[in-house]
Amino acid sequence: CLSMLLKDQETRLIFLKHNGISALTQHLVPGPKIQELYEACLCAWLLSFCKEATEEMAQLNIPKKLTEVVRQGNKEKVLRVALMCQHNILQELKQRDGERYARLVSKLIECGLHKHIATQRLMNSYTDEELLASMDWLAEKLEQGMKHEISQFDKYADEVLSGTLDWTLFHKQDKFWKMNVQNFVAKDCQILKALVRILQSSTDERTLEVACHDIGRFIHHYPHGRPLLKALKVKPQVMKLMVHPDPEVQKQALMCTQKLMLSKDSLDLLDLT
Fold this sequence. Notes:
By secondary structure, this protein is mainly alpha-helical. The chain contains 18 helices and no strands.
């Protein structure tokens, strides 16, 4: 059994030298073969005690793969080794390379690891001390990472000013909008006007989709958002996108139009239905 061999540090280095981690990633996929998945996660966890291995594991997106294992985890033993492996990789990166650690935390937040951990704890009554310790450590570090990300309006502004948008962490985080909505009207509405320019000029479906979403968020969180957007002639631009060929752009444009036209009380009623 490979897991027995990987208890030895020298064997771990040999496994690493012969591209064993790359081969292992193919087996870190949730499926009907629970025992096979457990053995793969167990091997990954054992390798995470090797500093050289954690570097490659981070590069090969193993923490992201393990997040999907956690999301679908229906066996405690699988969940245990998956989370303990993520714990070890992050802890090692935190000690050696703060910048890479921060990037990985951000990636795991975007993958929803913090939500999956919370769901697992809500749905199950775990007693294993090592599992609970890893859950607590990861939840704490992910929460710290979220606070850091949410406070970084400059990063969001850079994305908007680049003219290309994607579903990065900021767009769907209520805390981000509550904390930063005033920044949209700073400097003569620089960022708000940049979003409007995107609606007018972009041909990228994802960018248009996110821009409509963000304008809708602005309306929801900024007390006098509608009159401001009316002055910027946003509604005609958004309504044009309601017949866009891409269905996701259509969807976000429709939702944005509703927010432009309906009162906050009416929108709150829609959210309840």
